[in-house]
Every structure is written in C-alpha cells, then in structure tokens.
C-alpha cells in the first residue's frame, strides 16, 4: 500500500467518524429540543405567551440543528450556491409570510376584530 | 345497476348542455342565437383544426417524424420551438377574442351583441391565455432555445423534465381549447376571485376548467424555472463566468428564480379554491370562517412577481437587439445586471398594490406604494443603458429594432402611468377602471409581446436556417405599434371618465367615440397578426433564397451565432472556451472565429423519452376528468401518471452517443461552407446575398 | 491532501463512489431548488393556518381536537426515522455491502409508515369529534397543512420502496445511489417541516 493511499485512508477514516458523530449529535440534540417544549406545555403551567415564545425558540434552534447535523449545511463548504439558495429562500419566505400576516391581521383589526388572536 | 346509473358514473356531469349550440336550440331568442353561433363557430374551428392537422400529418406520412423527432425529443432547441408553436396558436385565439371584446364595446352603448355571460368568458379566456398560455410558453420557448447556446452548454440540466414541462403546459392549453367545444369556461376573470368563483355562485364546470388549466401551467412553469436556474448555475462553458454571460442569460436566470418562488403561491391559491369547490372546505367562502381576502393576498403574491417573469426575458432580448443592431457593446452591462437583480428581489415586496382598496390601513398602503415606485429606479437605469447603447452606434433599423424602439417609447409611457397608480390615493380613483387595463397592456404588449416578437425575428434564422421575409415583417411591426396605440390609449381616457373594466355594455354616450377608436385599433392589431402569418408563409415559400447556412446573419455577438443554422443537435462540436464578454464578437475581432478543433470526440447526448407526451395525455385526462366529475378517468390517469414516473426511474439507458466521425463530417462540411461563403456588409443583411457570414465593419466603428 | 471535495451540501458520496458522486452535483442542486420551492408552499400554508386560528365558526378548536400524546409519538417516530435514514446514508457511503443499508432503510420505512398510521388515526378521531374540514375555516387550514405533510411522507415512502426494488433489479448502481442521496434530503427536510407543525400547530394549540 502506497503512502498516499494510506494517508487518504486516514482522512476517510476521520471523515467517517465525523459523519457518524454528526448524526448521533443531531439525534441527541433534536431529541432534547423536542422533549423540553413538550414537557413545558404538559407540566410547567407557564403563562401562554411565555410558553409560545419558548416553543418558538426551541423550534428555531431545532431547525438549525437539523440543517447542521442531518443536512450537513455549514457556513464553510466549498460549494456555496446551495447556501445562497437557502438564505435567499429564507428571505423570500420571511417576506411572504411576514407580509401576509401583517396585511391580513391589519384587515382583521379594521373589519373583523373577533378574528384577531 | 341500471343504464342511467351507469351513464351517471361514466359521464359525470357531462350532458347536452355542454354543447355550445344547445342553448340556442332550446331557447331560440335572438341573443342566444347570436352568442350560440359565435361559440359554435369557434368550437367548429377547434374541431376542424384538430381534424385537419391529423389528416395532413397522415397524408404526408409524418407521424413517425412527429413522434421521434419532435414529441419524444428532449433537445432543448426542439422543445423551445414547440413551446413557441403553442404560444403562437394561443396568441391567435386570444387576439381574436380581444377583437370580439373591442367590437362589443364599440357598439356597447345600451347593449351590444354579446351576452354578459359570454363576454365574461371572453375576458377570462383572453387574460388566462395571454398570461399562462401565450406569454409563459413564448418566453419559456425563447429561453429554452437561446440560453443553452449562449452559455455554451449542450442541453439543459434536466432534459426530460423540460419535456414534461412542455407537456403540462400543452395539456393546460388543450384543456382551454376543449372548453370551447364542451362549454362553459369561467367568467371569473384571469384572477378568479372568490367568492364569485366559489361553488355557491358558480357551480358549473367553467371555474374548474380555469383552475386545472392554470394549475397544470403553474406546475410546468415551476419545473421550467428549476431547470433553467440549475442549467445556468451548473452547465456554463469553461471561462463563462456569471459576469461574462450575455444579458439575456441574466434575465433568464432572474426569471427562473422568480418562477421557482412565485409559482407556489399560485399553486396554493388554486389548490385551495379547488378544495373549497370539490371537498367543501372553507378557505374563501363567505360562511363558516372562510376569508376571501386570503385568496387575493395569495394570488398577488404570485401575480406581481409574475409580471417580472414576463417582462425580464423581453428586457434580455432587447438588450441583445440594441447591441447587435447598433454594432456596439451593451452600455452599462454591470448596471443592467444589478438592475435586473434588484427588480427580481423588489418584485416580491410590492404585491399589495394590486389591492390597495381592500381596506388595510393607509400606512400599509403607503409602504407598498413606496416599494412600487422604487422599482421604477432600476427600470429607469435600464432604459438609459439601452439608449446609451444606441448612442454613437451605427443603428440599423431592422425589424427587431423597430419593435425595440417601439418598446422603448411606449414602455416609458406605460411606466409613467404605473408610477401614478403606485400612489394609493390616485389608485382609489381609477382602480377597477379601464385606466388599469390600459396600464397593464401598456406594460405587457410592448414589454413582453414586442420583445418576444423581436426575438422571434432575430433568432428565427438561427433555428430554421433561413431569414424571415421583411416586407410583411415591417408591416406587422408597424401595425403592432400603431394598433397598440389606437387600441389602448383611448382606454386611459375611458378609465379617467370612469368606465369600469370588464363591462359588457354602458349607458354613457361620452364613452362611445373612445370605444370606437379602440375597436379600430383592435382591427389594426388583427392586421398585424395577419401580417405575421403572411410573413411566415412567404418566408417558407422563398426559403431557398434566404438561407443563412453559416449562421451569423446579423453580425451577432454571443456564442449562439458561432454555430451553423440550423444548429446541430449537440450545439458545439467541442465545448467552447470563453475568455471575455461578447465571446463570439471577440473571436471575430481577433480573426479566430470558425476554428477547426484540434480533435473530435464522441458526444454523449440525452436519449429520447416518451415520458413527456405520456404525462401530457394523462395530465390532460386527469384535469378533464376533474372538470366533469369523471372520477374513473381521474383515477386511471392518475395511476398511469405515477406508473409512468416509476417506470421511467427504472430506465438506465438515458443517453446516446454521437460518434466523433459524424461530428467531424458535419463540422468540416460546415467549415468548408464558411470558407466558400462571401461575407456581406452589415447594411446588406436583409438582402438575399446574406448567407450568414458578416464582413468586419469599417475600421474605426465603435465595437 | 485534503478530504474529498464536496460537490453539494449534505452527505457527499465521496471518492469510493466517484461516478455517482459527480452525478450528484447537478441532481442534488436541482433537488434543493425544488425543496425550496416546496418550502414556500409549506410556509404559505403555515401563514394561512395562523390567520385562520380564530376562524372556528363555533366548531371545535385545538383544545378539543388535539392530543399531546399522539403528537409526541408522531414526533418521536419521525425524528428517529430521520436519524435512521442518516445511518442508511452513512452505510451507503462507507459500507460496501447492501445488507446494512437495506436494513436501515427498512427501519426508516417502517417508522415512516407508523407515522402515517398514527396520523391517519388522529384524523379519524378528529372526524369523530366533528373536526372535519368542512366545519370551519380553522379546520380547513389545518387539513390543508398537516395532511399535505403526511402526503409528502407517503410519497417519500413510495419512493423508498421504488428505490429498494431498483436495488434488486439494477444492484447498487449510480441511479440508485443518487436517488438515495436525494431521498435523504427530502426525508430530513420533511422532518424539519414537522418541527414547524408540532411546534406551531400542536404545542401552540395546546399551550
């Protein structure tokens, strides 16, 4: 076996261990980030608004965890088109969803206040 | 099971009333006879047209050619041409409908000859066709043909998906054509606002035709967008950096990004409307918590980016036209690129200006009004860049250039009225009037149709190997411009006088002179359409005199002109290496054009696939079944679609090889032809001496 | 010498699968673009759901219809399936037999089917309590969002079965490998959408 072959095997070995670790970490973190909000809703008795913020926060972190550990999206890869794509999609999503909620709830406020949360 | 039960199951809600002449037989009043005759004539035209096509193909024995060279072909060039054929057929229908509407309003004082129902179908099909089945396929076709050539690629990234996109669009177009034979079509306008389009007000098949035609088209467009964007990102020739791409490719990229993100809201809106109508959901109904404002919001989340999906490719075409026919580099390339991207992003921030009057607070209206006016800035940048491209150039007034100049002037006027409408307080005065109709036609006729027609005139010789005839070509171009002005400028006046849009008749005599002028304008537009047909027919007859086999009839600048006309299936014998913008012009300047490649290699191309035509048929049948409640058909066609997709995923031989020997022979023959061909000066380019090889311009000309 | 250059985000097949690895670059990018387009659909349905939260029209609301236990079980099933799919991708890349790969795919498929089963059971139960889409705007919005996700999971299961059959017919060739990479992206993506659903719809509704 040549030197370079051996060297590339070690790299592959590192990559292998890294990827397995990534899935394990991802699973563990996601599990924790799921259990906590469920537990909070079931037993904490916090006021509703606080609960909602907490659920939202945990969900956001969990989404990041999934992207990072399961989909292997990070800020330092060679191919950046995909990262740009995800960021651009997020921008469009924020514009569309944010705009929709802004417009529709404003309309409710002026016309059908009973539909306001 | 009795026979009646069986028929109910087999025919769904199809019955005699679907026939276009049934009503006038049952109730032969004058109005029913007039309207019934018009529909029946149109239906006969569809049926006879279809029959004639079948007979002609059989008579000339072209079924095999049609199947293996066209329908199952995944070559981006052939698919592009088929998209444009669909677009031109639908354009003809929609123009004829427009003439009927103008004629109705020209005699519409206290009545007219069309029934309100029929007039409603006219403006609904006209709008739906023009947006989804004329504009979208036309620009998709042009991008399909030109963009891969311009970036030095052999095909799109996903050639079979491209064929499926064409298939779904064609299925939608076929559905609209069938709605002439088995009536009615929707009367809800191209935007199909509920609650009018809900089952409680419109239980018939019309709205369902509209829903499924539009849904098929939007699915096809989403796939097209994905395909174009991935192609531009991943298939560019070596050295073709993003900032070396021709501007047309930039506009294609931005349009495809808009398709990817703007078609989903439409799909959501039409799917929800369908759920309301078919399964008694309550998204947009008036009772049980439904809210039609959600529909309006969703529809325009799609609708506004759609405007830029339509206009950006035309901007790209005009950029190529201005620089080619001014014999000059495009002025302000980077500025144009940035302006295009700004327009693409800003187009997602202005949708509310389509419903300023829905009742939201003035601050929201103001925010969206300002965002709308902002779009005028990058658009203005573009206008100046095009003018400066012409400045000190040697402008040749060819047919594409006539369209481009017409566009430049008319589009600025339309843009001005857009800035007026962007002001919510003015919008309150003229919303829902013909002022608005005049405005968006003023944007889309010059800003989309002129662009596509200019592109058609410019790239036709590339695709078919001969130039289009010029006399009828000029007539068509001038008739389009004159007809447009006559048909739509009076609508501004009518709008300011308060005439509502989509009105079948009116009682205000002051409208009459204007509606008559607009009617005359429509006839001029009809003449323009006729001129296009004449031009095509004469070009076909005189094709041998007008051949341009060398492939560069206009002294072009980008890579597509470096190939023979018509272009061989593999586009380039070897993948070109690009070292600058305007790649082909640079080669010509350095005397390095038409080089013999060092070696020829086998070329791997995607193999034909029947998936596209199969999904065309199953998609159409599924939609047709849904419209008429033929559930067995929906089920069968659905299973067949999924089955076809799965079967396709098992196919492993997806490519074919064109041997190096064959490539060498074709290419060497062409190179010999290049050597033998006399170069012509630019001012002789519309002459029969033009064989597609331009002479270098006089020294000192600005390049 | 560096590690295999990655062609796309997500698990890269790497040197040992050179042909499939190269083929993935365009396919995976295309698939990402498709998923982002799909994301817009889900985003809009989420927004629509939020605007319809109080459109109960006198019908049953989240408090009466949702059950934390089954939502929790579904979440665990889907999350675990996402993890087991990760292990399948891992075996695809590093183990050169088909045994482990098939085993993990099988586990993922079962978890996916169990998820769909639980979800259907939920819907059935909701319907029994008057929670049908024709009852109110709120329920319409719910039944547009959650079952659409379920439909995606079902389609992904079908795709997985098709890929397993392909593996029997063609062996573990480039077509199957690129298919498995893309299906993996879809599977993880659907789990991300579910994070939105259990947080906003179920926990938000029960909080």
Describe the overall structure:
The complex is a heterotrimer of chains A (117), B (703) and C (207). Chain A is mainly α. In chain A, 82% of the residues lie in helices and 0% in strands. Chain A folds into two domains: 1-74, no CATH class; 76-117, no CATH class. Chain A has helices spanning 3-44, 48-70, 81-111. The mean pLDDT of chain A is 88. Chain B is mostly helical. Chain B has helices at 3-11, 22-26, 30-59, 63-71, 76-106, 116-150, 159-181, 206-234, 247-279, 292-326, 333-346, 362-390, 399-421, 424-430, 434-464, 471-496, 512-541, 583-589, 611-628, 631-650, 660-676; strands at 603-606, 655-658. Chain B has a two-stranded antiparallel sheet with strand order 1-2. By secondary structure, chain C is an all-alpha fold. Chain C has a domain at 67-206: Four Helix Bundle (Hemerythrin (Met), subunit A) (Up-down Bundle), CATH 1.20.120.80. Chain C contains six helices and no strands. The relative contact order of chain C is 0.17. The mean pLDDT of chain C is 92. At the B-C interface, helix 8, helix 9, helix 10 and helix 20 of B face helix 1 and helix 5 of C. Chain C: This is Cytochrome c oxidase subunit 3. Chain C: It is found in: Cell membrane. Chain C: The chain crosses the membrane at residues 26-51, 71-92, 99-118, 138-165, 185-205.
Using brief descriptors, characterize the structure shown.
heterotrimer, B: 703 residues, Cytochrome C Oxidase, Chain A, two-stranded antiparallel sheet, 2 strands, 66% helix, C: 207 residues, mainly alpha, 78% helix, 0% strand, elongated
Question: In brief, what are we looking at here?
Answer:
The complex is a heterotrimer of chains A (117), B (703) and C (207). Chain B has 703 residues and is mainly alpha-helical.
